[in-house]
Amino acid sequence: MSALRSLLLLLLSLCPGPGPGLGSEAKVTRSCIETRQVLGARGYSLSLLPPALISGEHLRICPQEYTCCSSEIEQRLTWDTEATFRGLVEENGSFLVHTLASRHRKFDEIFREMLLSSEHSLALLFHRSFGHLYSQHAPVFSGLFSRLRDYYERSGEGLDDALVDFWAQLLERLFPLLHPQYIFSPDYLFCLTRLASSADDPLKPFGDIPRRLYLQITRALVAARAFIQGLETGRDVVSEALKVPMSEGCKRAVMRLTGCPLCRGVPSLPPCRGFCFNVANGCLRNQGLDPDWEAYLDALLLLAEKLQGSFSFELAARSIGVKISEALMYLQDNSVAVSAQVFQQCGNPERILARARRAPPPQEEVGRFWTPPAAGAAAAAPAGAGAEEERPTTTASTSMNRLVWELRERLGRARGFWAGLPTTVCGDPRMAADISQEAAPCWTGAGRGRYLSPVVGTSPTEQLDNPEMEKEDSGSDLQTRRRRLQLRAATTRMKVAALGRDLELEDWDEDASGSGEGQHYADDWMAGAAAVAPPARLPRPPRRDVSGGRGGGVLVRHNQGRSRTGGTSVGFHTQPILILFLSALALLGPR
After folding, report:
1. How many CA atoms does the CB half-sphere of 140 hold within 13 Å?
2. How many CA atoms lie within 13 A of 449 on its CB side?
3. 3-class SS at 163?
4. Which of 56, 234, 430, 460 is deepest in the core (most CB within 10 A)?
């Protein structure tokens, strides 16, 4: 009998047995040595780790079979696996946050630097050239820069108000220089500016140039502000989406995926890829920003191309001086006709008595035509000379071109990020088996084997059939919808800005006055479209705070108290405003 028993045992050892089934690794491996080594290296106390497999009836997440985990170890593993999963998501999305944040900072610095440099250079050159004469008129220009900055930083009024007030104040300062023999009271100057800004604008002291300047500078500023807003919104939305707290069902699913193999004593057994996909798709369904993400990237890149090309802010800034010089020449050439209209509508001003006349101005201030070095040709060029269409080649434009190129290259890698995030997470060796080992046995959530459950997508309907997620975790949350709405609003704002329109300004005007401001310059800048003259808007006459003295009144708009939101930084060159003021004082000064 003993010989027969030995023969039977030998035959049984040679016969292949059934494949590994549920819990078979627990019956074969009656040791927790590997688990103790892995968790000990992570800083776990070995006193909390049983030396051998124990009954798993106390487990709340992992299968309640033989286990290497106490209740404390299972809870701590749940926290650690959650932190690992969240860290993977944030790590893979960190380049998005960094790209949007760094581009926002760089573009903002360029716009602010251009504006600040323009203002400082203007003040320096004007003060050196005209001294006290410039100091008397400096508030006109500093006020323009201040209001441009306010518009950029989302706290100021619309650009139309800033430019209308600028032209009105400029006319108020220049008109008395054309007629030094008269005294112009504040009331008379108020009549002058009201006449120039009336609905049909019969006076047109600067011709059609203020409208053309308004069109060009507005499209660039509106685009720059919407672009900065878009980068800022994207940065905040992505940063929030990557840090969304995980639901309890997601925490348990991630624990089953990467923590339970340790409790079963098989830490080297990788989770099945299908298992990982179902867990990742379920946990990340409320963190993705699709389908709004791709539309956001398209709008951002479209506006970046506009700022680099037809909506170039630097090109618009360089055109300011040319257009203002043309406006001043127009006023000088048509001063007789303009003055006749003003005298007819506002009456004849009081003449200065001979004995009260001031001393004649110095010879150098009489009839002098100022030509700035290296810029005089551009300043004096006629409207059709094409000087203003020359592409800028300054350091700022080079930086802008480089930044746009870098943004295009980096955002190209961001396409499909949210749709591919589960695949990226499951590509980490801590989360799933390598794709080359897909045919090998893996961790199924219950033991060693093949994962047979179907892999479901991330849509709400598909998530209802996710075998790894609880039903209460299948719906979308309010925070996700809020983030998508924020991204959609930024996308719409940028698309409208790419047409040269300020969406926020249009919304304000529709609610407040129905005048439709902000949209009447769009058609001029649509690619491939013929220039269309904007419909006439209804200007609001300026209001004056009278401070007394000849030409001493300060213009204040009737709508000055209203607030318009928006924001971004702007930058201008020195040369444009230099041409404006120096031409004004030199060409139109008293003779």
Report:
1. 26
2. 15
3. helix
4. 234
